[in-house]
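User: I'm writing a short report section on ligand binding and want a predicted complex to refer to. Could you take this sequence and NAP and write out the structure as tokens? A short remark afterwards would be nice.
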Amino acid sequence: MNSLNRVVIFGVTSAIAEQTARQLVQNGASIYCIGRNPDKLNRILADLKVRAGSDQTIAGVSADLTDTHQHLALIEQANEALGGLDAALIAHGTLPDQKACEADVTLTLQEIETNALSVVSLLSLLANQFEAQGKGVIAAISSVAGDRGRQSNYVYGAAKGMVSLFMQGLRNRLASKGVSVVTIKPGFVDSPMTASFDKSGPLWAKPEMVAKGIVNAMQKGKGEVYLPWFWYIVMQIIKHIPEAIFKRLSL
Ligand SMILES: NC(=O)c1ccc[n+]([C@@H]2O[C@H](COP(=O)([O-])OP(=O)(O)OC[C@H]3O[C@@H](n4cnc5c(N)ncnc54)[C@H](OP(=O)(O)O)[C@@H]3O)[C@@H](O)[C@H]2O)c1
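Assistant: Sure. The structure tokens for the complex follow:
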């Protein structure tokens, strides 16, 4: 089992990340929290401090994670606050308006920057530290949307697909170095990101449930994990539909 005593979370203001932070704190972890919105961040820090014991450190800082020039300094601050790092979780993301992206390439590139390039930057820097220390867990929230491009959300899907593929290579690089690289692939999660969606049907999960799966996958050092588990089967089916048929489907 991997130690999750000192964890840095990027994008902690995400509903899924906040629930994950709560579960980690309940397990005794110290957490360094990075979130964009200072009010939300301060509320989460205050809440985690109430849940933490006197021997646990809860600290953090506000940052826009598309500013990749700040990433090294943020990781250094997390190391300093916690006395080193056992694990990192990258959770921030946006759900692009696909139609708006189709009309405006600048928006498309911004979405790719937020959902893919900023994550690749953090993964690269964390990988070098964890490789040098010879242990640790690097996790990031990708998505089932990254498994196959669909007309309704291929900007988001392409960004998440890049994250998943980058992490696959990183996992291969770090497997012999004692470092776990965990790709989290949730399906539909009831969070602010999906506030405008119709939530009827059996496929929706709560952030608490996904958070439980994330903590479990990080502890066990799993590679790719679909949350909830049935998305593995759903995506196996979707991935195996021949392209000649898939391109005609309204998905
Ligand atoms: N909900 C789903 O159905 C679903 C499914 C698959 C994967 N995911 C992924 O799960 C992760 C968490 O999403 P969620 O469902 O918990 O949604 P959420 O509550 O809307 O969280 C998204 C978070 O990302 C943060 N963020 C966006 N851009 C940022 C930036 N430039 N710098 C720093 N933070 C930034 C947002 O911060 P602000 O509060 O400042 O806006 C927000 O807290 C995302 O990566 C998402 O793509 C979600």
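A remark for your report: The first strand starts at residue 6 and ends at 10. The pocket of NAP is lined by residues 11, 13-16, 36-37, 40, 64-66, 91-94, 114, 141, 143, 186, 188-189, 191-194 (CB under 6 Å).
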